[in-house]
Structures are given as C-alpha cells and as structure tokens.
Amino acid sequence: MTNSPFDRIVxxxxxxxxxxxxxxxxxxxxxFTEDAATSPETAIPMTDPSISQVVYREIAQKTPQVWLTFxxxxxxxxxxxxxxxxxxxxxxxxxxxxxxxxxxxDKDVPFNLPKDxxxxxxxxxxxxxxxxxxxxxxxxxxWILRSETVRLAxxxxxxxxxxxxxxxxxxxxxxxxxxxxxxLDDLKEFxxxxxxxxxxxxVKKR
Length: 206
Hints:
single chain
C-alpha cells in the first residue's frame, strides 16, 4: 500500500527505471515472513531458486540457525551469498552458510541434518576485508562476506542454513539466485520493502 507522496514517487521512479532497463531491476526480491526458520520443519520456502531472493534475519540465542528450503532439478547451479549490514558492531560478525540435501558429502555441523542428506559448508571466518556494497534502491550499505555457486547434481529438496560456528550473534542477510524477476504488484510493494530493509540496516529516517 502506498499512501504518502514520497511512496508514490518511489514507485514511479522504480517503474521508470524498470521500463528503461528491463534487464537491470532490483538486486534481490526480499522475502519477509513470520516463519520461525529454526529447523527443516519451519524453514522459509523459496520459490524458483534461480530467481534472486533475499531474507533478512538475526542469529541469536533463541535462533542459532536460520533455515531456507527449495526444490531443484538435476544438475542445478545454485548461487548463494551472505552478508551483514555495514554497522560497526557487526564488523567482526562472521556467520557461515551450509547447503544441505541429497548427494552431498557427510559433514560435521552443529545441528541435526534431515534424513538421507549431506552438507557443504562455507565459512567466512577467514574473510578479513569483506566487499562493501551500496544498494541504491534502498539506500543501504552492507559487507558481502561470501558468494558461491554450487552444483547440485541430485534433484530434490535442499536447505540453505546460516549459523555461527563461533557462537556469535548478529544480523545478516542470505540470498539465492541471480535472475531478476519482479511483477507490477511487487513493484507496488517496494516502498514498504524499502522501509523494512532500511530499518533492518538501522538507517536513520530522513
């Protein structure tokens, strides 16, 4: 819902940019949900994981892992990325991500895996200088910790899990996919998305 003149201007600008540059839309489609996301049973469902999508969450004592889930065909190349808001207290926060599913190797992780699955873990503890990223549409800044493309040879249900091997807590974002896909209804939601993303990044209101 767009109520303010500012919101209507933002939507108009986004629509104009999208019409002018149809292949250069928003970086990620944000997924806001009330799913607990603390286990395979409460994982956040992602649609086609080739589409660029992002979730904004926090690792805390009550939420030591955040789970996403999706289904892929045979020999699917999954692009994944993890980062943290560019906030001073998060400069040393280094969450890891794990891809979990059929056909992946046995791996020690600090949580239980679903039956008949393995895991591939991507650490960020070695990242000394994360890549700075400014997102123009939301006016937010992040540090990108790691980007990977994983070949998933076996078809079926997979999970992407964010966790902290060192027991740290903090905010992070986790994304999948590269293909940008937005409907007109999505673009109408952009002012609300923008506000929520800016709140997550603790950007002061202007």
